[in-house]
Amino acid sequence: MTREDEDKKKTALRLILKTIIYAFAVFGLLFILILIGVLGIMSPGKIIMPVPEKTVLRINFDTNYMEVRGDDFFAEFADMPVYSFFDLIRAINTAADDDRVKAIAATVNMSSLGLAQIQDIAESVKYFRSKGKEAYIFSSGMGAFGGGTKEYYLASVFDEIWLQPISDIGMTGVHIEVPFFKGVLQKIGVDPEFYARNEYKTAAESLISRGFTPAYKEEMSKLGSGLFNQLAAGISQNRGLELKDVKKLIDQAPVFSSKAIEYKLADNLGYRQDMESFLAAKYGAEILDISDYMNNIGDYQGEDLPHIAFLVLEGAVQSGQSSNNPMYDAVIGADTVQKQLEELSRRRNLRAVILRVNSPGGSYAASDEIMHALDRFKEKTGVPIVVSMGNYAASGGYFIALAGNYIVAEPATLTGSIGVLGGKMVLERLWKKLHINWGEMNFGKNAGILSVNHKFSPEEKKLFNRSLDMVYKDFLIKVAAVRKIENVDDVAGGRVWLGEGALKAGLVDELGGIETALKKAKELGGIIPGADFGLVYYPRRQSFQEKLAEFLENGGSLPAVKLPENVGIDVEDFKLLQRLQYDAVLPPFKLEM
Predict the structure, then answer these.
(1) Which of 343, 290, 282, 232 is nearest to 62 (CA)?
(2) 413 pLDDT exceeds 60?
(3) How far apart are CA 293 and CA 101, in angstroms?
(4) Per DSSP, what are the bridge partners of residue 510?
(5) How are beta strands 307-314 and 331-333 bridged, if at all?
(6) Burial tier of 538 (Cβ tally within 10 Å: 0-12, 13-18, 19+)
């Protein structure tokens, strides 16, 4: 056999081997999909654990309770909670009026919840305690030698705080970090060209500056000091400590467990099992996990009852479809929201909608589209909308909130940021460094205005800024008209407000959380206090067929929940950079409390 024949034989064998491998891969994927489908069809559904007559409710606040219920194709198989933040709040409030639930046994170490969400939980825990019930919380260490201030703020609303014997309370205050990329961008030959309306619209400063501008520093200082004061004042009030002493302890933190008892920051040293055993013995009760309790609540939608819809808008605003991939910022898609509103408009007994907005902003055009759809929904149905703001509802997120008949925010909610920005990353110098030449032909005077291969010409710059002026003016007009604010420039210009400041400025109507919004929705919807009503949650739960179709449409992509801890990628940092592609958005910054 010649050398040429041997080569042909080897090539043929490689092709056969590859064909076999690909065939197994394809059949393997099909087998998995069919198996999951069969399991989905045969599955009896959730196993409902009955609530014992004497129950102590276990809650882990380190669980990642997202605003949107986990409902993708792999939700039942991945390490993701199916229940949402709304479900958590509702469960605590329901337990407060449930005679079977005697106490709460909670845990908190490092929570992914934002301060506004924690304030909402704190209201629910206080309501639980107002019914003569006790709430206990355990920690094996709040924060990681720092960053545990919001966790301690939450713990402070409980009757007793238990600490693991060798642990500490972080409680080191508020830390803000902002990335600035101008130096590295200049080095590689990239020139960001962005324009904003107005000086406090600082989202692009990370690209065009080497550090804080005076306006940016002013905004971050106001934000940080406002959050710090809320945390310190809340801890002081909840634990019965002098405010000056709380601030002094924050400056001394981390506070070790033995000293925490001495300083009255904690009540007992022990382990979680010790605390749970103590409560079980005290009440002669069984421990039941909050998820099992949620299974017993469900969403009751009796046809003859008045209905309230709870519609969650979570993520950056853009055109097209909504998504909730944990690797990226969640997306509020204008097309999806319009479809949801069309479904809701066909509900016979719908009395009110609670619009839960948790968004840093996004596309102005998409935000405008959603606001218009919400206004049309109100006109068509006569159904009022109450907006409940989450950790943030800013810029394009605040624009959407303007459609509400009533706006509720927590004291720590980031809102406002009324302004716009836009521009492009100019790669002209980078191409020169790489010895790449671009040819260009335009058929229309401004056809290449957004090309990244050159800066704006004087005429293009004038045209682009004219567009920003038009959009900003439209934003101001709508804020002034809806919120009845005369000197709208005083609250706009990109200024970011905390909820308590937004209330004084007239941007929101009341401070509170989901329960506050629910009470207002009942009032506006004409539902008598104490009367039964049905709940309609959106995004609604998808059928297996819908999940499978969406999975295949997205190319069979798997959820990336475990990626950060597996490969060391800080997904939150990645999400910050994603914001920069939008024109009505909060600035990118990391906030640690």
Answers:
(1) 290
(2) yes
(3) 10
(4) 408
(5) unpaired
(6) buried
Q: Is the alpha carbon torsion for 87, 93, 98, 101 positive or negative?
A: positive
CB neighbours of 247 closer than 8 A, spacing ≥ 6?
Answer: 232
**Amino acid in the structure at residue 290:** I
Cβ-count burial of 229 within 10 angstroms (0-12 exposed, 13-18 middle, 19+ buried)? middle
List the one residue out of 61, 126, 96, 113 whose CA is nearest residue 272.
61
Strands (E), 384-532: 385-394, 406-409, 414-416, 420-426, 496-498, 510-511
Distance of CA 309 to the CA centre of its chain: 19
Token readout for 453 is 């291969």
Count CB neighbours of 56 within 10 A: 23
CB 587 within 8 A of CB 179: no
Dihedral of CA 21/23/25/27: which sign?
negative
DSSP letters for 347-410: -TTEEEEEEEEEE-EE-HHHHHHHHHHHHHHHHHH---EEEEEEEEEETHHHHHHTT-SEEEE-
Q: What distance in Å separates the CA atoms of residue 400 and residue 311, rounded to the nearest whole number?
A: 13
Spell out the residues 6+ positions from residue 463 whose beta carbon is closer than 8 angstroms to its own: 446, 449
- Give residue-wise pLDDT tens across range 454-483: 998 999 889 888 988 998 999 999 999 999
What 3-state class would DSSP assign to 167?
coil
Pairing of strands 55-60, 101-107: parallel
Q: How far from chain centre, in Å, is Cα 63?
A: 14
- What gap in Å lies between CA 346 and CA 536, rounded to an integer? 12
Give the separation between CA 118 and CA 111, rounded to whole angstroms.
9
Close Cβ partners of 462 (under 8 Å, ≥ 6 residues apart): none
Distance CA 153, CA 317 (A): 31
For 290-303, the DSSP string reads: HHHHHHHH-----T
φ and ψ at 512, to 5 degrees?
Answer: 160, 180
Q: Which two structure tokens, joined as six digits, stand for 569?
A: 């990628």
Inter-residue contact 106 to 61 (CB < 8 Å) = yes
Spatial distance between the Cα atoms of 242 and 261, rounded to a whole number of angstroms: 16
Closest C-alpha to 84, from 355, 385, 294: 294
Q: What is the enclosing helix (H) or strand (E) of 124?
A: helix 115-130
Report H helices in 418-570.
428-433, 458-483, 499-505, 514-524, 544-553, 563-567
pLDDT tens, residue by residue, 18-44: 665 555 554 555 555 554 554 444 444
pLDDT tens digits, residue range 418-442?
A: 998 888 889 899 999 899 998 888 8
Place of tokens 């945390």: 231
Q: Map residue 425 onto helix, strand or coil.
A: strand
Average pLDDT over residues 92-108: 96
Instruction: List, in order, residues 6 or more apart from 87 with CB less than 8 Å away.
Output: 65, 69, 294, 297
